[in-house]
Predict the 3D structure of the following.
Amino acid sequence: MLVKDSAMIDGVFSTNESKNEVDQGSNDKGLDLSVLIGPDKLKQLLQKIHDFTGFAVGCMDVNGHLLFKAGATEPFCMELIRKSPLGLKRCDMFASTYTKQPEENTSNVFECHAGLLDGRIPIVAEGNPIGFLVTGQVLETLPDKKSAQSYAQELGIDPELYWRELQKVRVVSREKLEAAALLMEFMASEMASLASANIKLQNEIEARKKAEVELKASEKKFRMVVENVLDAIYLANPSGEFLMVNRQACISTGYSEEELKTMSTEDIEVGHTEEEIEEIFNDLSQGKSHRRKGSHRRKDGSIFPVEVILCSYK
């Protein structure tokens, strides 16, 4: 049985065969297979598997919800077994094994309660299962009529109808289905690689967003401190152009913040030659700091004394 959710199965496979997708689910870690790989890419990969193997193939999330499929599902399963309350219950119990991680070196091919062979291949990215590829709904051998009809009675299904429909099910050797499962294992590993790359990208984006939020918060705190000190503070680039000034800088010089941001140190610095200013900036570039007395020029042209502390950061 390709999927776990019975209501979804009836809606997708029984009453609306053309519909090829359902509501997408994700695992408890928020890893949405359809988002990580992309719906178009998933459909393309499933169709290639179906074209190459001839088996119907589906892609489920870790909760057993079908995301996409390629190829027609088996009517014997969908229209007969699953229409029986007991049959549906047993199908759901069997399908619940799809949500469990298989042990290493175990076959990915199982026989369901009705004798159909199904394959389940996990897709694991970054150590987390993010979904499964499922295939099969075939018989390895046709059971004898007596045992088949006996099981039909147990499920509450007309034995003659059950036997008639059972004979229409495709008979395929387990080896052939396991060979298809091996191909699907390779495809699952490719999907996992693609998903892993996208997980890392998502983590980087989230980390960058977090860093930006923290930086903005830090800048806000820094600005609050800078704006409330009694000293004038200027932030300049290596060329001396002002990048940021505080309120006290505006008060002491008579310029607005907007005006100062169009100016540089040489517009307000008084008493230092270009050579001295260049020497100061060379020292600052080497991590040295300066503390000296000097003079600044106000907007009205008047000069006032200052004690300047200069330092640099990268």
In short: The chain is about 45% helix and 20% strand.
